Each structure stands twice: as structure tokens, then as C-alpha cells.
Amino acid sequence: MTTNNISDLQARFDALKAQNLNLDMTRGKPAPEQLDLANAMLTIVDADSARSEAGTDCRNYGVVDGLPAAKAFFGEFLEAPAEQVFIGGNASLTLMHNTVMRAMLFGVPGSPRPWCKEPVVRWLCPVPGYDRHFNICREMGMEMISVPMNDEGPDMDRVAALAASDETIKGIWCVPKYSNPTGITYSDAVVDRLASMKTAAPDFRILWDNAYAHHPLYAENDSVKNILTACDAAGNPDRVYHFGSTSKITFAGSGVSAVATSPANHADLIKHVKMETIGHDKLNQLRHLRFLKDMDGLKQHMQKHADIMRPKFEKVVAILERDLADTPGVRWTTPRGGYFITLETAPGTAKRVVELAASLGVKLTPAGATHPNGHDPEDRTIRIAPSLPSLPAIEQATTVMALCVKLATAEKG
Ligand code: PMP
């Protein structure tokens, strides 16, 4: 039974302490069974089959922008022409980091000067958002401007007003589908406004991190309007870099990343990448092509992931509904894809919830991680990552977390 009486809650808390739990819901890592789904990739390329279907010896140097078959595959994956696709290494985060770093050092097509020569570079950060995006901005010395996320994407009135009025604002982070961490998907209207809005900076960039484009939890997948074609149609062809990877499709540590962008941005990227590598890992590209085959193969594979993830998400939501429906100021998202659920606690209690849960042996993502510089001004956002733990562990961890939410709320009075 649920109760909001502080001494009852405290008694339940003390009882749980004796259980010496050790549960981790901090990061969106795939569970071992999800990784097992791709084990065939470990043997799909061997000494006798290391040439691509077009005859390239994938063991050797070369092919700086990726095997043509990989570019064709990722063209469909990112909904872009193959010739505008660049294939990177194992992490799209590297592509994003290096895109920003190169812009700082050299600028991008259309930049009056390298960004590091500007007195200040500001960046729009929809919140709650992805901590590793914010870390990139912080490392580059950018000033982050938070803009609220709504159910359809970032608050576009704020984004458009800021971008139009401040030439030091050089871009925005976007996770357009099953967003990290709220799980929402951008509406067509948001995509159109991002593509067509006036920007004071001539070299404004959208970093479109479509990390969960192919990660529905159910049979049907959300769809997002094509940002590259929307930018093109609006006369801003160079505005966007569209990133993706197979990290949460095959092996999180050994996926293939890709970026699709305009011909001008693509040529600029290749010019710089040539200085850093003679070519990325073609054997891994070949493994992926042979294993996933095509987008139909990928979709079928992702349903196997969904079958593992869906019960975990549903379990979290069921427990939140069971235990927190009557707790004031608390709400949560019910995503239909992606890797995260966002829990909003009563203002001023998120840090305390995470601290209480930790003292019971349940590790949650640090409160504040969803905001620039680790600071959630309202201290109410908690990112829940249900993928890694087993279903029984999820049940225990979420029950503990819900108790900690009630206790922290009751402590606040
Ligand atoms: N972007 C987002 C929004 C993510 O949530 C993650 C993984 N947590 C990544 C990027 C990392 O992607 P990759 O493995 O391709 O670097």
C-alpha cells in the first residue's frame, strides 16, 4: 500500500537499508541480452571474407569517407543521398565533438572567422537534455543557453527569438526522436521552424543527433520530418549535420557512426578528416553490412531489442503509477522509444531523491546531469535509464526510487 505519512515512509526506508541493495540505473547502456543479439557479427568477417562485395580489401588503409555500400546503407538510415554521407568510427559522439572542435579551430562554411576568434560563442541547449552534449560545449568554453523542451520539441518561440537576435549564438543541440531524456519526438512544425528561422549568425548550425531514430519500443516507429531537405527547401542547405550510429543497434562499444550533411559541409569535413585518418574501420563497416543487410534487416533486428526493452519501460511506468500517482508535483514521461524516462519530482527535491536512493544502494543518474553545467535550477529532473538492469532489478530499483521521491517530498513539507 502507498502511504505519504513520513514516519511510515521512514520505516520502509530503514527496512530497505538492511537489504544492502546494489542496483544501477545511471546510464543508458544496452543489457547483455541485447548485445548477444549481434553476436553473429563477431565471426561474420574472417580471413577469407575480408573483402567488400565491391572487392575492397577492408584490412588495408583507405576509403576515407566509408565503403560505398556503407554510405548507401547510412544514406537510407539517415534519409540522405549516399554522397552526402560520411562514415566515422565507432561513436557518433566523436563526430559531434570533432564537428564542434573543427568549427572552433577553422570555422564552418560561411563562417566569417574560426569560432575561437569570436569574443564569445553561445549555444542553445534544450533542457532537459543529454549531458555529453553539454560537456562538449563546456570543454570548448561555450556559453550554454537553456531553452525549455516541450512535448513537440524545443520551445521554438524562444529558440527563434534568441537565434534571430544574437549573432554569438552559433547553434543548437537537437535529439529529434525519442529524445534523451524525455522520450518526445519533434513535430513537423518544429523541424520547419528550425530549418527556416532567421539566425543572426551566418554560420548557425543544428547538430541533429538522431541517436534513437530506429529505436521504437513498439511495432510502430515515430517519424520525424527530414531536416536536411527542410533546410534545403528553406534556403539554408548548410544549416544541419545529421548524426547517427549503430551503437544501440549492434554493439554499444563497436558500432559504426555516420553524419549526413550538405555537399559544402561534407567537402569541408573530408578536407579536415583527411588530416586525422587514412580511413576509419572498414572491417567493422563490412560486419555491419553483412549482419544488418538493409533497412528491413535493421528494423527486424530492432524489434528484438524492443521485445527486451519494452517490459522494462512498462515496469518502470507501472510502478511510478502505482506509487506516485498521488504525490504532489510529480510527473513522468511514457516514451514509445529510445532509452530514457524523465521523472519530474517536486521542485527542490531531485538531488535529495538521488542521495536517498544512493544510501539504499540504488545508483541513479546525478540530479542536474540533464542541464548545462550540471545545474537544474528547479532541482526536479531525474533521468531514468531502464535498459541495463534485469527486470527484477528494475522493479526493485524503481520501487526504491519511488519511496525516495515520497520521502523527499514529505521532508519538504
Ligand atoms: N547521443 C545521444 C542522445 C545519446 O543518448 C547517446 C548515448 N547515450 C549518444 C549520442 C552516444 O552515441 P554514440 O555511441 O554513437 O557515440
From TrEMBL:
Q: Where is the signal peptide?
A: none
Looking up Pfam families in the UniProt record yields:
Asp_aminotransf (PF12897)
Q: Which GO terms describe its molecular function?
A: L-aspartate:2-oxoglutarate aminotransferase activity
Report the superkingdom from the record. Bacteria
State the UniProt keywords alphabetically.
Aminotransferase, Transferase
InterPro entries per UniProt: AspAT_Ic, PyrdxlP-dep_Trfase, PyrdxlP-dep_Trfase_major, PyrdxlP-dep_Trfase_small
Q: What is this protein called?
A: Aminotransferase class I/II-fold pyridoxal phosphate-dependent enzyme
